[in-house]
Amino acid sequence: MEANELIDRYIHEVGRHLPRANREDIKLELKSLLLDTIEEQTADSGQPPTTKMVAEYLREFGKPEEIAAKYGPEQILIGNELFPYYRVVLTIVLVIAGAVHLLGVIFQFIQNDPVNIGQATLNLLLSFGQTALINVGLITLIFAGLQRLNGVEFKLEPEKAADWDPYQLPPVEDPDRIDRFELIAGIFFATLFIIAFNFFYEYIGFIDLGGDDRGVIPFLSEAFRPHVPWLTASFALDALLKIVVLVQGRWNKGTRWIQLAVEGFGIFVLYRIVVSDIISTVPFFTTMTKIGIIVAIIITAFEMVSILARLLIGRPITPKSLFKSPMV
Amino acid sequence: MPYMVTNQEKDDLYEKLLLELRRGILVLAVLSQLHERQYGYALKQALEDKGLEINEGTLYPLLRRLESQGLLESDWEVVDDARPRRYYQISPAGETIYSNLSGEWQALNAVMDNLLFPSSGGQKWKQMS
Fold this sequence. Notes:
heterodimer; A: mainly alpha; 3 domains; two-stranded antiparallel ribbon; 11 helices; about 65% helix; globular; B: mainly alpha; Arc Repressor Mutant, subunit A
């Protein structure tokens, strides 16, 4: 790993734990300060900094979570030392609660066919909201109690420099970097589905190995056929977008907004299928397919929320854009 | 039976108390060096040159905190086409507080001197420092 890569990973990791409001500004300043020190330390030798030297310096500088906690606002209920741990526990508990609720809905779907998807989603949200509220309250209470242990405040032992390893820092995520393999695979499968649904509709099914003529038993019922043009449009839009991104070599704001629209359209198409009566010639497979589609809708919706959040909140700030701001 | 403190516990406790003692004076020390604008690393060097070693992981967040409290002002600047640096300087409100705190420090110093070294009239303290 290069020395610069290690610095970038460190800054990124600190940034993950910083309040969003001035995250980019602190990251920029921290980078400038770290580079100042590292440059000064290597000034005598005239050699560029080595990864080992940078790692040693970062180890001394402090664990990313702890540095971020020092930058954060003074927490009154739960102090800065405990706050990062409070956040981790809260995240784990809420993720588990969310997963359990999701599984509950899927089981409900399997047992009561057909289930009203709107009602099930509303129940899921209400029940999850209630559980989340209780858990947040309990965890906050426990941490606030911990904070007040040992007299006035609870302080964690200062972390020894050797207790954390800069080489273990995760790589900086670049959400706009493209994965060529993923894009090409996506285009390939979208094309494959378009061809299959439009030209080999009757051949999508099971091969009857038991019979004498060994014919194909169609999987999709005739009632499903009106969905084919919608699916074709959805797959075609998706493939087209992926081709554009592949040619451009990187995701950008424009293509991300188009992706949101394409995925929104995809959810609409899938929703129409879920609320339709019959998909497969075999009732059991209609249920199974619907479960699969609901999972796909939920995953796509989560992806859309994350893209939307990045587009609206996570604006990238460069030094150039910073100096154009009224702050300077 | 009284609780026996191990050497390790004694060392840890000492480190903790020393940290708290130093924490109290850091704000005053930082304010004292920012009558002229400086960027983080230069400030660290200035403090070290005058005998105050400070961990950068403590100093840099402290600067932001003092700024958010209105005691410091800051701006970004690019000098000689180098990378941008954030420069800090004491604010008018910071000057007032610094002046008051300095007076308090001198008074406290005199009191502590008498408390710690009553027989020598505080002379030992002066010799040590």
